[in-house]
Protein: Putative 4-hydroxy-4-methyl-2-oxoglutarate aldolase
Amino acid sequence: MTLGFEVHQRERAVGADVAKLFVDIPVANVSDCMNRMAAGGADVTMLNNDLATKMIGPALTVRTRPGDNLLVHKALSMIEPGDVLVIDAGGDLTNAIIGEIMVTAAVAKGLAGLVVYGAVRDAAALRAGSLPVFARGVTHRGPYKDGPGEVNVPINLGGMIIEPGDLVLGDADGVVSVPYGSVTEIHAAAAKKLAAEEISIAKALSGERDDSWVDKKLVSRGYTAPEASA
Ligand SMILES: O=C([O-])CC(=O)C(=O)O
Ligand SMILES: [Mg+2]
Structure:
């Protein structure tokens, strides 16, 4: 094996039946059920003009030399319908890793989402398109096509580890990846969190919100309220 040139098949991937359970659950609710230990970073943002865009699907991962997309082209040939292509390009913004032509080919193969820890180009088309696209930045400067790079290896998206086949979710708040083995448990917790938040929002609207915990917490942290003036 030549180090840096590796192409693997996924050993497992979250199925469409499980993925679709997350369709109405915001990324923030999922994130809240993961002990604040998983986030793609605030700079991996959604490009789509339609802020209601939602992304869900198992990860097809690529780790590439920053600025190079040879192995991304290889990954395009491996897309299965419903996949989310997640590319770790080291966060580098010098060269665009993917643009409209490659995205069009990927969508034709059934891609359900794209995440680039790096830059993209042809931003107008990507913003207007229906494919959910998340990236760290945009540049017109094109990619090299020489490698190295690896397909279906664990990757690091701004500190969040994504393994091939993990469930990757995205919305206007960013990207979160749920480990393959935790998907059922996280779904149950996130569905509960969503229901609780719906009640909180209703109470916020009606003015019934109980914020008595704030003063209790302040006192427990050593805060003393100033004496009321006579
Ligand atoms: O030239 C490239 O490899 C990336 C690009 O702009 C496209 O896919 O349209
Ligand atoms: Mg292009």
Notes: The longest strand covers residues 55-64.
